Amino acid sequence: MVDEKAGLELRVLGPFEVSAGGRRVDLGGPQLRGALARLLVDAGRTVSVRALVHELWGESPPLDASRTVRTYMSRLRGALRRASTGARFDLLLATCAPGYRLLADPDMFDAARFERLAADGRHALAAQYPELALQRFTVALGLWRDDAFVEFDEHPAISAEGTRLNRLRLMVIEDRIQAALATGRDTQVVGDLETLVLAHPTRERLWGQLMTALYRCGRQAEALAAFRTARAVLVGEYGVEPSPGLVEIHRQILRHNVEPAAPWPIVAA
Q1: Do 75 and 121 belong together in one domain?
Q2: Are 123 and 181 in the same domain?
Q3: pLDDT tens digit string along 29-82?
Q4: Close Cβ partners of 230 (under 8 Å, ≥ 6 residues apart)
Q5: Which long-range contacts (CB under 8 A, 24 or more apart) does 67-73 make?
Q6: Helix (H), strand (E) at residue 93
Q7: Which of 12, 80, 219, 268 could pair covalently with 126 via S-S, beta carbons 3.0-4.6 A apart?
Q8: By residue range, what is the domain housing residue 75?
Q9: What is the pLDDT of residue 114?
């Protein structure tokens, strides 16, 4: 294991980047980048050569695919070694039968930091510390530059992990808005919510947050109109009525009795 790991960063919340001491590491071509990204998906666990071959070439690998994977690992170690600034970053890429293992510390990995901050924020929100939650969620979302693993759509395991992270990002966006509503920042989130419901029209939680924020800004008619729009989308897309949570927010608006935060469950991860 590497003794001096400070300075190495692995970023996947956007285009895949590796940097050491603030300088970009040139990993090589797309297949080399894909091989390292696949190891990063299962960081700390061994990924077999067979799994790497399938990730890089699918059902039609070249005859010498296993040997090519070993060549890729050697080239990646070389790139990490050249980037090392006192530490031996190449030692993070370990050979572990039947394949390879990336021994990256979670602090090196932007996705791991994002998930830790998101969990901290959820705990704070569940414990009714919305200001602290808002701060954690804001820092977590600030790590994002684009969709996760954005360049790896043709790589099944990497793409699946990107999809998971992108879904979690949307949940954290909703959590951050929930924290903002709980701290009275209603006017600050209305614009964002209006954009978000257009991008994600079947997300009931976003509709509920928009209705709540609009009502608290003195825009009751618009809040009720938002419910009608949400219902039309849900019935049109899924053939289902709004959930009890969204109906409850609608009922509270009709009764002029919206709670400090929309009545939606917060799960502390």
Answers
A1: no
A2: yes
A3: 999 999 999 999 999 999 999 999 999 999 999 999 999 999 999 999 999 988
A4: 197, 201, 204, 207, 211, 242, 246
A5: 69/35, 72/31, 72/32, 72/35, 73/35, 73/100
A6: strand 93-96
A7: 268
A8: 8-108
A9: 98
